Amino acid sequence: MFNRILPAAFAASAAALSFTAVSAETSVPFALDWKFEGPSAPYFLAIDEGLFSAAGLTVEITEGQGSLDAIPKVATGAYPVGFADINSLMRFLDQNPGAPVTAVMMIYDKPPFAVVGRKSLGVEGPADLAGKVLGAPPPDGAWAQFPIFAAENGLDMATITVEPVGFPTREPMLAEGKVASVTGFSFSSTLNLKRLGVPADDLSVILMADHGVDLYGNAIIVNTDYAKANPDVITGFLGAVAEGWKDAIADPATAVDALLKRNPAADKDLETERLQMAIDANVLTDFVKANGLGGIDADRMASAIEQTKSVYTFTAEPDAALYFDDGYLPAADARMLQ
Question: What pLDDT, in 10s, does the model give residues 297-308?
Fold first, then answer.
């Protein structure tokens, strides 16, 4: 049963979630992967601009604790929609056959999985990780893909000392020189280190997608029971998300203003830079410019599955149809970002 590894609290929530036809004012709780930072600003902008309400939705957004965090929340029905790493979703579904969760809209067409190191500590490229200490939070999405990165770059994992670290201590440990590099999302770790006073010219940002890793990144995920019962809600939600990203790309500073209403302690300039990094490197790719936000390429997805198989033993033959369903996406012209 899929709930054998899920928190009991979420299982209790599932019993309370009603999978019925929805009214014009439908509440849709949305579970993020991480804190309220720049890349989450488009969703808050969609709230403030009335994009969700125009679709008949009231959306409440909650923070997460990592790329894997939203998956069990959505699988149990505690949340109908969430934001999570699709590669972690593959493994979750393999370990929990039949769990009612799938991805329906790709957001990070180019994933931000990265190794961020310090040049002054001897890390500039993949080969430099050998013989060094790597800080990696166990629930980190980038760490989950690190074995693929290592294999693609001929790295012997036995030559790398991996230090399990917490998310709050990851960047401080690198700033203090206690580790030579860390795994993380490029826009998160880089700017967190900048905020901690590490000079930008001392940082090496090794984006896994630039070094042989052919994976997708984070996507909007749904509880499939909810989605089947409420298809118009999901399509309306995804349409508002696309509009939110389009408006955030046109005016990142205004999008970050919407974020600051929910996280007033955030630094506007830093979060605007973080959002812009996500737009440039992860969201507004050539594929998205040509095809609109949200879809995937079948051949690339097949390649991503093969790369995952190289480092993870599936208990059943992986099936792309289990991991991504484009049937809820709005029409392509409604998802064009430029």
Answer: 999 999 999 999
